Amino acid sequence: MERLTESILERVTTLPEGAPVSARMLLHLGTRPAIDQSLSRLARRGQLLRAGRGIYVSPVVTRFGSSAPLPEKVIEELSSQRGETIVPSAAASANALGLTTQVPVRTVYLTSGKTRKLTLGKQIIELQHAASWQLALAKEPAGEIVRALAWAGPERVHEVLKEIESKVPRSDLRKVNEHISLFPGWLATALSRSATYA
User: Fold this and answer.
1) 30 and 56 in one domain?
2) Rounded to two decimals, what is the model's pTM?
3) Domain range for residue 152?
4) Who's near 139: CB < 8 A, 6+ residues apart?
5) In which band, very low, low, confident or very high, does the pLDDT at 104 lie, cut at 50, 70 and 90?
6) What is the pLDDT of residues 109-160, one digit of tens each?
7) Same domain, yes or no: 8 and 61
8) Closest CA relative to residue 141, chosen from 182, 180, 174
9) In the beta sheet, which residues pair with residue 118?
C-alpha cells in the first residue's frame, strides 16, 4: 500500500500547479479502493488537499510553507481536464468592466458542468451550472460583456449597455452582436436596438 501511495505522489508531482487529481486518473496504478485509501492517506498527511468529493490538488510548497494553489489555476486545469467551459460569474464580469465597485464576496464561476463546490484551504469556490448563452465567447473579452449584460438583467440592460459602449472597443461589441441568436429575447432586443450596430 505504501508503494502505491508513493507511486501516486510521484505521478501527482509531475502535474501542473492546480491540476485536480481523481482516483479515475490513477487506475493504471492499482485498484479503485486501494487508490481511494492512498489518496485519503496523502490528504491526512497534508501532501494533497481534498478540494471536493473525489477531487484532490497538490499544495504549493514555498520556503514560507505550503498553501493551496490559486483558484484561477485550479479552474483552468479543471476546465482543460474535464472539457468544461468555466467562466467568471456575471457579478465578477460586471466588476471587471467597472460597472460596479462591489467585489463579489464569494468566488463563483459559471460552468457547463454540474453545480458543485471546491475547497482550497480556507477558500470555497462555487461552480454554478449556467445556461449556454452565458458561457458564450468564454475566453474572449466579448464574453465579459455577455456576462455583464446577464448581470444587468432585463430591467437594467439598456442602461448598462450604454455604459459598456463607452468602456469597451467597438470590435468586442460587434463580436457579441454576431452571436445574438444565442441570447434570450430581452438581450437580443436590447443589442439589436443599440446604436453601436447601426
Assistant:
1) yes
2) 0.86
3) 133-197
4) none
5) confident
6) 999 999 999 999 889 999 999 999 999 999 899 999 999 999 999 999 999 9
7) yes
8) 174
9) 125
